[in-house]
Design brief:
Largest sheet: 12 strands, mixed
Number of strands: 44
InterPro entries: Secre_tail
Pfam families: Por_Secre_tail
Protein name: T9SS type A sorting domain-containing protein
Shape: elongated
Strand content: 25-35%
CATH class of the largest domain: Alpha Beta
Strand order of the largest sheet: 24-21-20-28-27-29-30-37-36-35-32-33
CATH superfamily of the largest domain: Class I glutamine amidotransferase (GATase) domain
Distance between the termini: 40 Å
Length: 690
């Protein structure tokens, strides 16, 4: 119909339709509706036309015997036949001044149309934006948006989905009986708008060649809005009314609530741990927080730290007041990272900042390591509320094929046994410089307990020695005895570190930068004679020690623990590959905790956990046989319906892997079942997550 939205290439809102389209198959006969002269003809191309008087018939092959100036009789002589576009584009008027050929009180008649138009929905957006108001609660300047269409005949296709002729809107009280605004009619398409640039005033984002979404609060030629500031707070009824050219109308109502403006975000989640168990059970925990302004959570996950996704079912499974999200049967061959935020129930939803990003990789052999996030970014180079530094450590360990869990220092502070059993702990403190901030009393107790065991403790940061020196007493003694470090002079003008010859870090060199590209202010390190040694130095004039290492067998009562102390934040190494290299070399510096995977010989039949898990779209199912046997590996849905037999036949003893492709299946939990003839059946669950 006239003034519908039209596209051009990739531009979905490009111009107004300047005529009417009548479906007619190629070769269909076209007659003039006026008895007058031919005024112009274009004979070539898909847009060929013939104009008789003020009417143009486009997408036709004009009669070759007609020419400009020839007279034709109305409804008598064929003036053209339709071309391959299978319709006539009928225009009343001349370019730039077209009028609606079926307008009431002046258009062509008769036109039989017994169908009412439709208003499919009404929505409310912040003025001049695509920000949707939440739950029809509105404030400030509001755009009313409505999808509407008209049906003109019983045929399928274009006749059932046309643009509307007129649209009006009005606001009433909560009963819908008393008008509180005047009725406004921004659109009544008798004439083509003066510029196609107005198309985005009339049609909202999401409109295309067959979808018509209008913004009736906008006049055709400018921005407009419903100013809710002029109304008292409370509930109202909004009416949108549409009409076709034959006088058929339809209305739709929506209830809204005008509320106070709320720009305050809800509290940001503070992650406390992401821990994995050898059976694939994951636990993501966060600190309890005030829930009075929280309406829900968004939980994102990533497998590479770059591409983030949200599974709505996962997010909505987190209830208000929860501090735990758990996953069962997660794959043991890859990392997964999570970050979390909250949102409120304001008219324009407010979101908290994202939490820090934590990662985990499940592992049994070799045993997993621990990452401790002790960086709060208070006073130094990092001022953002969140960071991805723990994620970066996780990616470094993932590149080594090592499992790990991630803990916040607050968790370590509350449970001094939390780190027990981890062969290596990577403890980052960043740039905290406030007294007792980098390492609290609880953290020191947990570190002391860990170092009395048999592990490798790696700690990094710029402010550890400054904190200890400022606090003095037991804090300073703790620093020197536990980190085998006497503390060094301040370093102001170093921009890189390099490995000390004859140590495990020989040949290593990396630039260090703060986020602004400036020099970091750092405390140097000083080894304790006969106990620790320098393994890294700054490139300042003095070659100040940047890291010390204490091997096992020295410094009772911590002689069973190796210690690596770095006087700068590893996360501030500018090059990612260099960060990963340093983490790898630090972990391997203590030979006792460098454990390797070992091949195992099957002693009995078993069915392993699929990997990856969750997966999309394919996954590997491992199993092993202690003796040759006939086997069948099958996949079922939760109702027990067989979906696919993956393996069927006789197989030799040993380790086996089968690939299952879930393309075409919906998100959800599925069972896989291994039957071994004469030995039994094993069943496991797996999760398809798209």
């Amino acid at each position: 119909t006239f003034c519908e939205n039209r596209i051009k290439g990739d531009v979905l809102r490009h111009h107004f339709h300047d005529g009417l389209d009548f479906g007619l198959s190629e070769g269909g006969e076209v007659y003039s509706v006026l008895a007058t002269q031919v005024t112009s003809i274009l004979r070539e191309g898909g847009n060929a036309f013939i104009r008789v008087g003020r009417y143009a018939y486009v997408h036709v092959d004009p009669d070759p015997n007609l020419d400009v100036g020839d007279k034709v009789t109305a409804y008598d002589k064929v003036i053209a036949v339709t071309n391959y576009q299978n319709h006539v584009h009928f225009k009343d008027g001349y370019p730039g001044s077209e009028i609606n050929a079926i307008r009431p009180g002046g258009g062509l008649t008769p036109l039989t149309d017994t169908y009412d138009p439709t208003v499919a929905y009404i929505k409310f957006y912040k003025n001049k934006s695509t920000i949707l108001f939440n739950n029809n609660k509105v404030n400030g300047l509001v755009d009313i948006v409505a999808r509407a269409y008209d049906r003109t005949n019983s045929a399928s296709g274009v006749g059932t989905n046309n643009g509307i002729y007129r649209m009006s809107w009005q606001v009433f009280d909560s009963t819908g009986t008393r008008a509180v605004t005047a009725k406004k009619t921004p659109y009544k398409f008798d004439n083509i708008p003066s510029s196609d640039s107005y198309i985005t005033n009339v049609y909202f984002v999401g409109s295309d060649q067959g979808t018509y979404i209008y913004t009736p609060t906008n006049p055709v030629s400018s921005d407009g809005y419903w100013d809710t500031r002029l109304l008292d707070k409370g509930r109202y009824r909004v009416m949108v009314e549409v009409e076709d050219t034959r006088g058929h109308t339809a209305t739709r109502w929506a209830t809204v609530q005008v509320v106070e403006q709320d720009d305050a975000p809800p509290p940001m989640p503070v992650l406390t741990m992401l821990r994995g168990e050898s059976d694939g059970h994951l636990q993501l925990r966060w600190a309890a927080m005030d829930t009075s302004d929280i309406a829900g959570f968004n939980l994102l996950f990533s497998y590479d730290g770059l591409s983030w996704n949200e599974n709505t079912a996962m997010s909505t499974s987190i209830a208000i007041g929860d501090t735990l999200f758990a996953v069962d049967n997660f794959s043991s061959d890859k990392s997964i990272f999570f970050k979390l935020r909250t949102y409120d129930d304001a008219a324009l939803i407010n979101y908290s900042p994202w939490s820090d990003s934590y990662g985990v990789r499940v592992s049994a052999d070799p045993p997993p390591l621990a990452i401790v996030d002790g960086f709060d970014g208070r006073t130094g180079y990092w001022r953002d509320k969140r960071h991805d530094f723990a994620l970066d450590y996780g990616l470094a360990l993932d590149a080594m094929n090592r499992g790990y869990s991630t803990f916040a220092d607050e968790s370590v502070e509350k449970d001094d046994r939390l780190l027990s059993g981890y062969p290596v702990v990577l403890y980052m403190t960043g740039d905290d410089r406030a007294p007792d901030s980098a390492l609290t009393r609880g953290e020191r107790a947990a570190i002391d307990r860990y170092m009395r065991g048999n592990g490798h403790f790696i700690i990094s940061g710029t402010g550890l020695y400054s904190d200890a020196l400022l606090a003095g007493g037991q804090t300073l003694d703790f620093f020197r005895t536990h980190f085998a470090n006497l503390g060094g002079t301040r370093v102001f003008n170093a921009d890189s570190v390099y490995g000390v010859a004859g140590t495990a870090l020989e040949g290593f060199k990396a630039a260090i930068r703060d986020p602004e590209g400036e020099y970091l202010v750092m405390d140097g390190a000083a080894p304790v004679p006969d106990i620790s040694r320098s393994v890294l130095r700054f490139n300042d004039l003095q070659g100040t020690s940047a890291a010390v290492f204490k091997d096992r067998g020295k410094d009772e009562p911590y002689n069973n623990c190796a210690v690596s102390y770095l006087a700068f934040p590893i996360e501030m190494i500018a090059d990612r590959d260099k960060r990963y290299e340093l983490v790898r070399r630090l972990v391997k510096m203590d030979a006792v905790t460098v454990l390797k995977n070992r091949e195992t010989v099957p002693e009995k039949f078993s069915l392993g956990q699929n990997y990856p898990n969750p997966f999309n779209p394919s996954t590997v199912i491992p199993y092993r046989l202690s003796a040759a046997a006939r086997v069948q590996l099958s996949v079922y849905d939760l109702s027990g319906r067989l979906l696919k037999t993956v393996v069927k036949g006789r197989q030799n003893a040993g380790n086996h892997r089968a690939v299952f492709d879930a393309s075409g299946l919906a998100n959800g939990v599925y069972y896989y079942r291994l039957y071994i003839e004469g030995q039994g059946v094993l069943i496991r669950k797996m999760l398809l997550l798209k």
